[in-house]
């Protein structure tokens, strides 16, 4: 990636992987990484590389297989967590098509095909990621200690959430009660991963990352939006496949997840607004990050709407709302559920309005930059799809709950725009995957292109060492002397 200046200020760009996958510099860095590995770097080893080179020199099938093996190793080494943003975009596309207000015959089938594609991609990406951190164990801490690469861990949880949603919507209980329980178990797993990422990544930012206001991007939102997405998924499961007792527990946990994620997201959105005002819009490689604040607004609004709707349906099914059946009568529980429904709708409208403001500012900034600068495609362009997609889900949900034709039409139009964006970005990604130019790991480029032998857990804050530690150090020094 080429470092760039932002509005005349010196802004560190190469560490911000929302723009990763530059078709020219990525190949150069990848070649550098391969050269480093030929010299014995990483876990490739000199013996393995020499055998590959010897096989290649021999020509024929063995040489071709050697080239394939080396290319596969390069792809695996440079396979970053940001690839799960492909799952986010593909998953939200299948959900939008499945729930489009105006359906035509066969649209559900198209949505289910995209859903199957998303499941296949998720399994492939997870397998490659597992291979990456198994073959090169130091890549785990290297990625975690990188200021921007680590933030993309949130895309894994959100990509999984889209699969959970479609399992509940498209399959539901038609595959039996056991599959419904399996879907619920996947939701619990996704929720645990989401909250760990939501709390773990800010901890790393506080203790292991070097940050400054000019390096704040919308990517900061990825870890904290994950619980909001999981909360919205909980509302979908509670309303479609769960028994009343399971649904009530899921709704309670979902509200906790929503609060944990949206509270932090709102703080980061404030910081990001200050960064944009002080240091101006990001450069072309990072401009997509301006759309990411749309995510917590759209998904936050949809989550509130879906959870309140689930509570209302729960009271109809079991004569209880959030509180236990022993605390309130059936009539009181129904009144409580209606009250939650009534309060959630205007709050969701407020969040939708905030999202509309961010969408307008992001589009304006993108057009203004496009007039003077070339926008080069990279993997970060997948950041267009999911934020816009969840804003569409909030729009169509408002259309349903308010019985508003305007919201239904607007949601349909925005959904079609998202689908066209998904088709365009997917085709551009496939071209670059074929040429091998989109596989680029900024965390590797920052350290010379090869996995380190050891990654020290360096704390970035000032601290006074423990007295015991100093005494042990002094004892070791005396012994060595």
TrEMBL record:
Record's keyword annotation contains Mitochondrion: no
Biased composition (Polar residues): 12-25
Bilayer topology annotation: Multi-pass membrane protein
GO molecular function: sulfite transmembrane transporter activity
Keywords of the record: Cell membrane, Membrane, Transmembrane, Transmembrane helix, Transport
Example of a GO cellular component annotation carried by this entry: plasma membrane
Parts of the chain that traverse the membrane: 77-100, 106-130, 151-172, 184-204, 216-237, 249-274, 349-372, 379-399, 405-425
Recorded superkingdom: Eukaryota
Sequence segments annotated as region (Disordered): 1-42
Keyword Zinc: no
Pfam families cross-referenced by the UniProt entry: SLAC1 (PF03595)
Location, primary (coarse class): membrane
InterPro entries: SLAC1/Mae1/Ssu1/TehA, Sulfite_efflux_TDT, Voltage-dep_anion_channel_sf
Protein's cellular compartments: Cell membrane
PANTHER family reported for this sequence: PTHR31686, SULFITE EFFLUX PUMP SSU1
Family: Belongs to the tellurite-resistance/dicarboxylate transporter (TDT) family.
Protein name: C4-dicarboxylate transporter/malic acid transport protein
Origin species: Ceraceosorus guamensis
